[in-house]
UniProtKB/TrEMBL annotation:
InterPro entries: GIY-YIG_endonuc (IPR000305), GIY-YIG_endonuc_sf (IPR035901), GIY-YIG_UvrC_Cho (IPR047296), RuvA_2-like (IPR010994), UVR_dom_sf (IPR036876), UvrABC_protein_C (IPR050066), UvrC (IPR004791), UvrC_RNase_H_dom (IPR001162). Residues 272-471 form the UvrC family homology region profile domain. Interacts with UvrB in an incision complex. Pfam families: GIY-YIG, HHH_5, UvrC_RNaseH, UvrC_RNaseH_dom. Residues 15-93 form the GIY-YIG domain. One of its GO terms (molecular function) is excinuclease ABC activity. The keyword Membrane does not apply. This is UvrABC system protein C. NCBIfam families: uvrC.
Length: 598
């Protein structure tokens, strides 16, 4: 695939958390970094002068930028850690050691211990995390120990050894920090009830625990024990900001390939996430050009085979969003709940971001392809017989029936054609009647186009619901154009699209490009109409104040306003000041008009 210019790549990066990767012109990975906002962080490398010679050299070598979008900054930090350790990029210094993030372990024992660890052992124990801060781990463990006393010794507390009296309770028991399972002072069943409650806490379900902490803090504060209250408040703050799980790392998901797809009229985009030992180590999105009307299932199957061959993937299981038949050698899973489902959703997000970036890049380097794709999409979404290359949108403007006007804006190939905009004074309607006004302007617009033999639009949009749409249809019928031009109405409240003769509106996806173009048309018509209406009202106000004075004409009014800037300043001006602008005779007329009582 041809590498795009860096400037274009920077313009199309998303404003989302994620991990970015810099490659040189030979495709070698130079650097991996994390960002809360990918676009801002990556752009900062190219927008400023670097004093550090190493950074300056890195920027000079960058030829290509890739990225992976994740849900949060925490996920980005964890994914950055995994990728640096896996690929060892030349310019990454941090995170190259063997240090890993801490986990909370519930040991696979008869009376389980709960403790922090940085090592994941496949011994049947449960691991929760990872956590980006050891402070969070210690806060959780302090919380757990305060609520549920647990053993800390590493004795083998088998039933036989306890019954034989091999162990004696230690100081921890006498301090109230342990319930004494070594002397059978608590049953295994009751101990495991406490472990179940601890699982809820480490999974993030600590509502009851937070309530208890708040009660303790309040009690300390009422007793004037402010240091103790502050210490508990700090624990509450840490717990409230704590994230129970990460979709980037999960030790229960091991050596799996994750695939998803998004598509449009001409292309499919297959995203691939590779998980090794529970961590994402690779992300890649493949763009597939449709030759016929291939389904998402067909495109995804092609993409999976291509990607697995390209990266020599040996994973025996893959996660996908829907059922696929890939032969007997691969186990295909369609996750429905939990972390597995979230991993597939993360893959889908990356595919969507890739698609959006392609659109933005195409718009810059190949505008014709972008326009063709957009027109095909609008034709499909709006159920039209032809592509809407020429669209016109109408909007009425009036305040309590005064100075009624209307505006028509024109879009060609999805872009405003401002030289074709038209504004209308309402001539045949009295009072605030939007329906009659819409009928008048639609009729006048297309009667003129027909008389002048000008091209007609493929789509007409009226700003309003069923009433305004019916008025537009009536005008087209009068001109013999009903059925020759598609016409729809858009209602503001829920962005409903109405069609003639259909009582049920069409709802488009809020993020669809088709709806965005229609909204842009509606907003532009509203802006253009409101501007015309305000100018007309202002003109009417000026006429009322000055041009009604006998002996004062339009040119005199313009000269006065150009000099004094407002009618109120003309009123307040002295006769000598007026005379300097318009001469003594007219100055006397205006001054006398405003100062008759004097």
């Amino acid at each position: 695939m041809k590498i795009l210019d860096l400037e274009i790549q920077l313009k199309t990066l998303p404003n989302s958390p994620g991990v970015y990767q810099y490659y040189d012109k030979k495709g070698k990975l130079l650097y991996v970094g994390k960002a809360k906002n990918l676009k801002k962080r990556v752009s900062s490398y190219f927008n400023k002068k670097h004093d550090n010679a190493r950074t300056h050299l890195l920027v000079k070598k960058i030829a290509n930028i890739k990225h992976i979008v994740v849900n949060s900054e925490t996920d980005a930090l964890l994914l950055e850690n995994n990728m640096i350790k896996n690929y060892q990029p030349r310019y990454n210094v941090m995170l190259k050691d063997d240090k890993s993030y801490p986990w909370i372990c519930i040991k696979n024992e008869r009376f389980p211990r709960v403790f922090p660890t940085r090592r994941l052992l496949k011994d049947g124990s449960e691991y929760y995390g990872p956590y980006t801060s050891m402070k969070t781990v210690h806060t959780l463990l302090d919380l757990i120990k305060g609520l549920y006393p647990l053993r800390t010794c590493n004795y083998d507390l088998s039933k036989e050894k306890i019954e034989s009296g091999k162990y004696k309770v230690c100081l921890e028991y006498h301090l109230g920090n342990c319930l004494g399972p070594c002397e059978d002072k608590i049953s295994a069943e009751r101990y495991h009830d406490n472990i179940d409650a601890i699982r809820d806490i480490v999974k993030g379900n600590f509502k009851d625990s937070l309530h208890r902490f708040r009660s303790q803090m309040k009690a300390h504060a009422e007793a004037m024990e402010f240091e103790d209250a502050q210490r508990i408040k700090e624990k509450i703050d840490v717990l409230e900001g704590y994230q129970a799980k990460s979709t980037v790392v999960n030790p229960l998901i091991n050596n799996v390939d994750v695939f998803s797809i998004v598509s449009d009229e001409g292309y499919g985009y297959v995203n691939f996430l590779q998980l090794s030992h529970g961590a994402i180590i690779r992300s890649h999105t493949l763009e597939l050009k449709k030759k016929l009307d291939e389904s998402d299932e067909e495109l995804l199957a092609i993409g999976i085979i291509e990607i697995r061959q390209r990266f020599n993937s040996q994973s025996s299981e893959i996660y996908v969003p829907f059922k696929l038949d890939l032969g007997d050698g691969i186990r295909v899973t369609v996750p429905k709940l939990g972390d597995k489902k979230r991993i597939v959703e993360l893959s889908e997000r990356n595919a969507k971001y890739f698609r959006m970036e392609r659109f933005k890049q195409t718009k810059i380097i190949d505008p014709d392809r972008h326009v063709n794709r957009l027109m095909a999409q609008m034709k499909s979404d709006l159920r039209l017989s032809v592509e809407p290359r020429h669209i016109e949108c109408f909007d009425n403007s009036n305040i309590q029936g005064t100075n009624p006007v209307a505006a028509c804006v024109v879009f060609k190939d999805g872009k405003p054609s401002k030289k074709d905009y038209r504004k209308f004074n309402i001539k045949t309607v009295t009072g605030p009647d939007d329906f009659a006004s819409m009928e008048e302007v639609v009729f006048r617009r297309y009667r003129r186009l027909l008389n002048e033999d000008e091209p007609l639009p493929q789509l007409i949009i009226v700003d309003g619901g069923k009433g305004q749409l019916s008025s537009g249809v009536k005008a087209l019928e009068a001109l013999g154009l009903r059925g020759k031009i598609a016409i729809i109405g858009i209602a503001k409240r829920l962005e409903e699209l109405f069609y003639p003769g259909d009582s049920i509106p069409l709802y488009l996806d809020k993020k669809s490009e088709t709806l965005k173009v229609i909204q842009q048309l509606r907003n532009e018509a509203h802006r253009f109409g409101i501007t015309f209406h305000r100018n007309k009202r202002s003109s009417a106000a000026i006429t009322t104040e000055l041009e009604t004075i006998s002996g004062i004409g339009e040119k005199t009014v313009v000269d006065l306003l150009r000099h004094f800037r407002s009618v109120s300043k003309v009123k307040a001006a002295k006769e000598e000041a007026l005379a300097e602008v318009i001469g003594p005779a007219k100055a006397k007329i205006i001054y006398t008009h405003y100062h008759q009582e004097e």
